Amino acid sequence: MDRLDAMSVLLAAVEAGSLSAASRRLGMPLATVSRKVAELEEHLKARLLIRAPRQFALTDAGRSYVAACKTILEQVGEAEKAAAGEYANPRGDLTITAPVAFGRLHLLPVVADFLQVYPEIDVRLSFSDRFVQLLEEHVDLALRIGDLPDSTLRASRLGTIRQVTCASPAYLAQHGTPCIPADLSGYDCINLEIIHTNDRWMFGAEAVAIQPRLRVNTAEAAVDAACLGLGITRVLSYQAAQSLADGRLMRLLTDHEPPPRPVSLVYAAQGLLPLKLRAFLDFATPRLKARLAGETP
Fold this sequence. Notes:
Radius of gyration: 24 Å
CATH superfamily of the largest domain: Periplasmic binding protein-like II
Number of helices: 9
Distance between the termini: 61 Å
Number of domains: 3
CATH class of the largest domain: Alpha Beta
Oligomer: single chain
């Protein structure tokens, strides 16, 4: 039995939530996944899992053993990276995640320049608006918008963005311009549901009920709809920056905007920092700061 391989399979099953999900993630037959876990239990002479038809639960022994497996596999991974030269030269694979719109507008151009300078580093970009767990999902670096929770991760501050309320000049010419947040209840609104989960927009401690004529699930759709004169929308500043700059949208209620949100690069700080990650931080941080500063109203 290859114990490290069996540990990896067990850890994949725990992270995936079931043996069948681990089978799909690993591209391995379900019977093989089950056999490897059974071999571990036989070797340890201890039951690790309580199996059910669609899922399983860890025993007390299983919980402590999985925690030990995670530590061991991380240490083996570090040793292999060191042997491969990741800590001697900037090379290898770098996985980075960022919110979809910000990643496309700002991170992708910086990564394109980075790849030209570092030919031995390959980058995997994962754009997602969900909160990505770095260690659990094997991600090297995350760009995050908003206040950061206390954690063992390290963060490099890049700047701030604002939440802006805007509409097209044609819509405002026809319907007038709101002067205070409470006025919005009398206007057609375009609600971006990934930010506003109900029909209320927060301005500090004030919750304003709105009348959405249109609900959308992407910032691009909200901005495009506002440009078409369908109503007032509320997005993050970078999402509407181009439309505001070229006059297709006008910014409203600037005196009532909430405090700016921080933008940070977040990464794990356990042990030595691979040179591929250090190289990217040194390269990208000043460039992303400059791009954010260029958007500051």
